[in-house]
Amino acid sequence: MNDAPIDLGPVADQVADLLDGIRDDQLSGPTPCDDYTLGALLNHALGLSWVFTSAAKKQRGPHTDNPPQAPSPVVDPEWRTLLPSRLALLAEAWCDPEAWKGETTAGGVTLPAEVMGLVALNEVAIHGWDLARAAGLPYRLPPEVIETLLAFDGQDADDQAAREGVYAPVVPVPDGADPQDRLIAITGRDPAWSPGS
User: How many other CB atoms sit within 10 Å of the CB of residue 77?
Assistant: First the structure.
C-alpha cells in the first residue's frame, strides 16, 4: 500500500535497532546535541515520534501546536519498548499517501505536508546518528536517504540567519568527503564527534 513519496520505515527500523546497544550507564553521557544527555535525546526522540505521527494524520493538539520543550534528562523507564513502538507508528502513518497532501502542523509550525514529511525523516535520521555516536554504535543511512536529505538540508546551508535556532553553522569537511559525513556537517555537527571529544 505504500505509494507515499518516501518510506520512513527503513530509517525508523534502523534507529529502533540501535536501542539494544545503548547501556543504562550511558544515559547521563554527552551527545552531539549541545546540552542533551543521551537520556534527554531519547526523550526527545520519544516526543518527536509522537508529534510527527500526529502530523501525518493531521491531528492537532498541544503537542503539535506548541514549540518543543527541552526534554527531561530522566528518560521514560519504558523507553526500550516505547520508542520502537512509536517509531513504527510514525513510519506507518507516513506510508499513507494522504499524509503527504495538504498542510499539517508540528512544533507550532504549519507547513505543506510534503515538506513536513521530509522534516520527520530528517529528525529521525539525524537524531539516529546522534544516538549512535553517543553510544559508540555503527550507523549508516541508506544512500537514497542521504541523497534526499543532502538536498533538503543543503537548501539553506549558506544562510545562517535562516538556520538560526535549527542548526549550528555548517562544519567544514574536505572536498570529496563521504556523503553521510557531508550531511552530518550540513546539520552543524562534527562528523568526527565522539563522547570523549
Answer: 7
pLDDT for residue 164: 66
15 contacts 138 by C-beta, under 8 angstroms: no
Write the DSSP string, 101-165.
Answer: SSEEEETTEEEEHHHHHHHHHHHHHHHHHHHHHHHT------HHHHHHHHHHHGGGTT-HHHHTT
**d(Cα 156, Cα 186) in Å, to the nearest integer?**
9
φ, ψ of residue 30 to 5 degrees: the values are -75, 165
Using N-to-C axis directions, what is the helix angle for 143-153 and 113-135, rounded to 10°? 110
Compute the mean pLDDT over every residue in the chain, rounded to the nearest whole number: 93
Cα separation, 2 vs 64, whole angstroms:
25
Map out the domains of the chain with their CATH numbers.
9-186 (1.20.120.450)
Per-residue b or e along 93-122, where b marks 16 or more CB atoms closer than 10 Å to that residue's CB: bbbeeebbeeebbbbeeebebbebbbbbbb
Nearest residue to 166 (alpha-carbon basis) of 175, 176, 156: 156
As given in the structure block, the three cell numbers for residue 99 are: 499524509
Pick from 63-77, 83-97, 154-168: least confident = 154-168
Q: Is 140 exposed, middle or buried (0-12, 13-18, 19+ CB in 10 A)?
A: exposed
In contact, 15 and 131? CB cutoff 8 Å: yes
Residue 31: how many other CB atoms lie within 10 Å: 24
pTM (2 decimals)?
A: 0.94
